[in-house]
Amino acid sequence: MKGTIATALDLMAKGLSPFVVERLRKALGDDWLKQISVAHNITVVDPCSWDAHVVLVLMWDHWNQVFRHELSFVERSLVSELREYRNRWAHQRMFSERDTYRCLDSVERLLHAVGSTVAPLVDELRRESLQRLHDNELVKPSRSGQDWFAGAMTAVCGVILAITVSLFFPKEFSVALAGLIILVFGRLVYQMTRPTVIITTGPRQCSDCSRVFYGEACPYCTRAVQPGTKKLAAAESITPALLSTSLR
What is the residue extent of each domain of the chain? Predict the structure, then answer.
């Protein structure tokens, strides 16, 4: 996570520096470096070596004077947020995948706002983080579908069959046939023992009642077996034909 954050911060500094330098020179004049050095009580080095901290501080401290004419309050909020992320990264704080994605998204938005050509590189990092976030939070493996006993028996049968073929079949055919048997039985063992992937978001159809629901468990089947719901289940099972007959 921290490596991704570091890469994003470096790309952000590279993408924002030309914009910041141009706007500061335009607003403060040719001696803008000297003015910044005096204002911040520091010696401002070559802008090509600026890191994310310097760029964000300059944008924040000179916002009203320089940057508010082109950027909105949305970008100002992004600058403030990214300063916090940069400080957390500098102090070796832990980043969750959600925080990583949020940081990358904010960096990309700020780069797009200034028209930087570096934004597509950050977009690639953001997409990778989104995939990891999807895998970690929206997809989870379930071991309920694993059948280790059947897989072990299938593997034993495959080995026995391969050995039998290699002993009793002609040598020119036995190697190829034994290899094919191992591949087929290996595939079967993999299918039996691999975890079943359950997507925990979006709609799906219940295998029991055939209704569409959201979430992990069908609420209709769960509700039908709960105490006090027998009447509801019975009422739902009344067909229109029976209902019209009873009304007569």
Answer: 2-137, 144-199, 203-247
